[in-house]
Design a protein that fits this description.
heterodimer, A: MetI-like fold, 75% helix, B: alpha/beta, D-Maltodextrin-Binding Protein, domain 2, 2 domains, 8-stranded mixed β-sheet, 19 helices
């Protein structure tokens, strides 16, 4: 294939048309967007592409490594740490989304009624969302750390033996999930409460006239009206849970014996603990790929409905 | 060529030329630079309570006063994300001229081309007779790749502590061997209290290092190959597992971090724990109730514990290596106030500083300096010196997970296998 060399006339024509486009009103939106686009490229696209490339190299944080192809990804798939982190991330996200949605919906339905001190409860129930994670999670640690902690004193009152919540794999997993639900439900509650208040009251009146029970009104009026926002909320919560570093790190540091180590903690450990940037980047991109697939599936289902 | 014409005018012309040259030199930027002091950036980790930072700042101010041609700027660096802090600074070209750092930081950064060897400084110290002031096994620990990569300044070490009240209540003597420790731990386990309290964080792995080094074991062969499952190491792990099996180790240990562990020990919930030399000083009202266990004799009579030689290193990015070395030598010699005023939790590496009254008055630290430091060993044991992989080995968490499983009472065999596989993966063996 032959390429025609650029002539002086071509350059002049190109410059003239560029000048014309800049003078026309069409260029204004692009010019206004340019700084934001540049910033986005600098702080999102560049680090992302660099990170993606690192996933194919063997370097450390200071030494640029050599290209190793898919070696890091192959090592990951063979690693029990990775498979466990993947499993825990799934369990963590699934239980948290279900738990905080159920709790948030229940409380939103309750606070949508005329209950005493409704305003107070609406504010008070937002506290877990507002309190900084370091404060709330460390407080939870104190309440469950050992045999003299609050929970064990309560268990002791009923004659039970102390439970070492953070020393046993199963209890630690349950504790991490429970605290994540506690931190997440206010967002669900607030969003669902707003959606509930937007439902047209006439729909309930019509349903009542047709003889629908409270349960049927909830099932056939409330839930369909909440469907779209629920999908968005569950999607957001899934992303936030998979990417959650604070809860497992501050509560258990991924222990005991890596039982509560999710993909984000694993990426951190590989990158900064083991100084293996390639492997850490590979974990991050696998996490990103999983989340992207999830987002596409959920958005497609939402569109189908 | 005669530049100045005839003789009578030559003297005046020369004088004029000299004046002009002097004026030029005095007005030139070169002269301005010579008058301006050299600025150095010194990053110091936080090695003690808040007053440590103030004492270090005062010390830097003293240096600046004594050396008007060098002005050092002090920056205190928190331990949180310390590695990222240094790596980011180095990769962005904003590394300090020199910094203090944890045990293996210098070798790791040297291996990546960021640290300037200080062989000339060590040579000068040797000539001045100052090298002999450093405690044995400190300067040479920082020799890597045939170069001295940093100068030791502080020792962190792990020591067994006991609660005097709990041992007295149980009628038990302070143990001197591992067997006696096990028996004492068992005897003091009663009424909701335990013999030993450990932790599941990095501090938990120190129990393992202490045990294996105390038993004459080591993680490496002389040629730096992992030797995790050697007879002495496994024997040491089994000794710890034995205490767990006896029910003498607090079941909360797995979930505890070092702060939790220390708090539980200070509250009297356990009779023994392993910690740094500053434990008693930080115990408040309970200080009088806490004693230092003498270095234990292992199962074969060996003595030993884990220690880290924390150091001060010079960065390749420095534009003023000579002035940096001047400060390095001064700091190393004059750092006593870091303890006397700053209450640093470290132990000094210089005998002249260790001989100060401050350490003599603190019986526990004096004891540790006299009895524990000489038997201190690094995680590199039985290899010579330290090397970069040690940082990954300690930072990756394999030993931490191993300690957690040990405190849970899992059988030693399988958890040793798991830990060995992970360590091999970290060390790329």
């Amino acid at each position: 294939m032959s390429v025609r060399p650029m002539l002086a006339d071509d350059t002049t024509t190109w410059r003239a048309s560029a000048r014309e486009w800049l003078r026309s009103g069409n260029s204004l939106p692009f010019l206004l967007l340019a700084p934001s686009i540049f910033l986005m490229l600098a702080v999102i696209a560049y680090p992302m592409l660099t990170g993606f490339y690192y996933g194919f190299t063997s370097g450390s944080l200071l030494k640029f490594g050599k290209f190793v192809g898919f070696d890091n990804y192959i090592r990951l798939l063979q690693s029990t740490d990775f498979l466990h982190a993947l499993w825990f991330s799934f369990i963590f996200a699934a239980f948290n989304v279900i738990g905080c949605f159920a709790l948030g919906l229940g409380l939103a339905l309750l606070l949508n009624q005329e209950v005493p001190f409704r305003g107070f409860f609406r504010v008070a129930l937002l506290l877990p969302w507002i309190v900084p994670s370091i404060v709330s999670i460390v407080s939870w640690r104190w309440m469950m750390a050992d045999q003299h902690a609050l929970f064990n004193q309560i268990i002791g009152l009923f004659g039970g033996s102390p439970v070492y919540f953070l020393s046993d794999e199963h209890w630690a997993i349950a504790a991490v999930i429970a605290i994540k639900i506690w931190r997440s439900f206010p967002f669900m509650m607030l969003s669902l409460l707003a959606a509930l208040q937007g439902i047209d009251r006439s729909l309930y009146e019509a349903a009542a006239l047709d003889g629908a029970s409270r349960w049927n009104q909830f099932r056939y009026v409330t839930m369909p009206q909440l469907r779209n926002i629920s999908i968005v909320l569950c999607l957001l919560m899934t992303i936030w849970t998979v990417n959650d570093f604070d809860t497992p790190w501050l509560l258990t540091q991924g222990g005991p014996a890596n039982a509560t180590e999710n993909l984000v903690l694993l990426a951190y450990r590989y990158t900064f603990g083991r100084n293996d940037v390639g492997l850490g980047s590979a974990v991050s991109f696998v996490t990103l790929a999983i989340l992207m697939v999830l987002v596409v599936i959920l958005l497609r289902r939402q569109r189908e409905r | 060529m005669n530049w100045f014409g005839n003789a009578p005018h030559r003297g005046r012309a020369r004088a004029l030329a000299c004046l002009a040259a002097a004026a030029l030199v005095s007005l030139s930027p070169l002269s301005a630079q010579a008058q301006e002091p050299v600025k150095l950036n010194f990053w110091d980790m936080i090695w003690g309570p808040p007053e440590y930072i103030d004492s270090a700042k005062d010390l830097v101010a003293q240096f600046n006063k004594e050396h008007p041609d060098i002005q050092v700027e002090y920056r205190s660096v928190p331990w949180n994300n310390w590695y990222q802090t240094f790596v980011t600074a180095i990769s962005s070209g904003t590394a300090p001229d020199l910094s203090t750092g944890a045990g293996y930081q210098a070798v790791q950064l040297y291996d990546q081309g960021a640290i300037r060897p200080i062989d000339d400084v060590v040579e000068e110290l040797k000539k001045d007779g100052e090298l002999a002031d450093f405690m044995p096994n400190t300067v040479d620990t920082l020799r890597y790749d045939d170069h001295y990569v940093a100068l030791p300044w502080g020792i962190d070490i792990r020591v067994w502590f006991y609660r005097k009240d709990l041992l007295e209540q149980a009628g038990v003597k302070v143990p001197t061997t591992w067997d006696e420790l096990r028996a004492a731990a068992k005897a003091t386990t009663k009424d909701g209290r335990y013999g030993v309290v450990g932790s599941g964080d990095t501090g938990g792995s120190h129990f393992l290092y202490n045990a294996l080094l105390n038993n004459g074991g080591g993680l490496f062969t002389a040629d730096r190959k992992l030797d995790f499952k050697n007879e002495r190491n496994v024997e040491a792990f089994e000794a710890l597992a034995g205490m767990v099996a006896d029910g003498s180790v607090s079941p909360a240990s797995t979930g505890y971090n070092s702060d939790d562990r220390r708090a539980a020990f200070n509250r009297g919930q356990a009779a023994f724990t392993l910690d740094g030399p500053g434990l008693i000083a930080q115990a408040g009202e309970q200080a009088a109730n806490i004693g230092v266990v003498p270095p234990l004799a292992g199962m074969h009579g060996d003595k030993g514990t884990i220690f880290w030689v924390n150091n001060i290193m010079v960065y390749e990015q420095t534009k003023h290596p000579e002035q940096t070395k001047t400060f390095l030598k001064w700091w190393s010699k004059n750092q006593l106030p870091l303890w006397t005023k700053g209450n640093s939790g470290q132990l000094p590496t210089r005998s002249s500083i260790a001989a100060d009254d401050y350490f003599k008055k603190d019986a526990a630290r004096a004891y540790v300096l006299e009895h524990y430091v000489p038997v201190g060993k690094t995680t590199a044991t039985n290899a010579a010196g330290i090397f970069p992989a040690l940082n990954d080995l300690e930072g990756e968490g394999a030993m931490q997970a191993f300690a957690q499983e040990l405190w849970q009472g899992k059988p030693v065999g399988p958890i040793v296998d798991t830990a060995e596989a992970r360590l091999k993966s970290v060390l790329k063996e």
